[in-house]
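Tutorial, part two.
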Amino acid sequence: MDHAGAACAGAASTGAASPGDAYVGVGGNLPFAGRIGPVLFESAITAANQFNITVLSSSPVWRSTAWPAPPPGQTRPDFFNAVWRIAWPGDDPCGLLDALNALETRFGRVRGAANADRTLDLDILDFRGLILATSRVTLPHPRMRERRFVLGPLADLAPDWRCPATGLSAAMLLARLGAGADAQRLD
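Running the prediction step on this input gives:
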């Protein structure tokens, strides 16, 4: 049995969760306490310590169009996105998920419809190279390879990071998406 932790026990997994880093996708498109985007993300980095999450480094912030597109005649605010490399003291990705959800709540996240606008969205992209499927978490993140707003920041932060499922680097996965204007780094 790997070290996926008690909350994830019985899950189909390969690889062993060993001490090391995890990568978290960060996003949001609504303000909280007068902060949005890069300023909100900096506040969340500071608050993460209260949840035993140590943010070791952060990518530059990217801006992306909201998905799915709103109905004709309506608008949605753009999203801001980044990726954090974090240290987590436990060996349980479900415990990390609980901590990330608590941090989201601390920053005003209200769960509603899928893909709804939100203040802060935190997704585990990779947990120490673990491949895992449970009812609560799938690792690596199942849709990250399709999203420029995830791969762009990840490639900025860790271009040589390798996807446990494919063996491809973040830079290679981003290149496979081809050119696109749906997400761009803020300068």
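Residues 64 and 181 are 8 Å apart (CA to CA). In part three we will examine how such features are distributed along the chain.
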